[in-house]
Amino acid sequence: MVVEPAGNLLLGGYVEPHVVRVSETGQIDPSVAPNFQPRTGEFFQGVQAIDLQPDGKVLVSGTFGAIDGVTREGLARLHPDGTLDHEFNPGRVSGQVNVIAVLDSDFLVIGGNLKSAAGQPRTGLARFRPVVRPRLSKPTFGADGRLTLAITGESGQSYQIESSRDLQVWSPLVSVQMRSNEETFVPELPEGGVLFYRAIVR
């Protein structure tokens, strides 16, 4: 259980929807209802630990294997409205997490009966560093007239480039594997009108 700045309670547990917001007057917010799915072949014990970041995002851990159909094994971050934060993808966490703590440096520490974290053997305690958010530069045109975009981010991380005409519906274009802190790619050009681009963590 954690208390939000507005005074609401965020509860995590075994009973669906596994994360619940309760107001100071005891009213449940029905809009917060993330859909947790269990890992294949494992008994689902719900959300076992929960904590709040300074920006209002919610960290949860448990024996889940996916949230809203997107793979998140054992550890995930939610937006304040309860939807999955796609930018935070810590990889598979196996074992039982009893405690989540956000440090002042924005590092995340989890503790419990751990076996591994992000594919690395970890016993009892693991620390995650902050997520480096990808950024797209202003487009440039080469001598051949081709449009080029540069993406900056974390070396070794994979980002997905998406496009949209209305900033509402986004379509995947290409996955970029970062071999350094900056990579370039050639996006598609719109046949007419305006086309927006974004990079997200997958």
Describe the protein's architecture and organization.
- The protein is an all-beta fold.
- The protein folds into two domains: 127 residues, TolB, C-terminal domain (Neuraminidase); 67 residues, Immunoglobulin-like (Sandwich).
- It is built from no helices and 20 strands.
- Strands 10, 11, 12 and 13 form a four-stranded antiparallel sheet that branches. Strands 14, 15, 16 and 19 form a four-stranded antiparallel sheet that branches.
- A hairpin with a 5-residue loop joins strand 1 and strand 2.
- The chain starts with a strand and ends with a strand.
- The model has no long low-confidence stretch (mean pLDDT 86).
Strand content: over 45%
The average pLDDT is 86
What's the total count of β strands?
20
Instruction: Please give the share of residues in helix.
Output: under 10%
Oligomer state equals: single chain
Q: Compute the CA-based radius of gyration.
A: 19 Å
- Domain count: the total is 2
Which regions are unreliable across 5 or more consecutive residues at pLDDT < 50? none
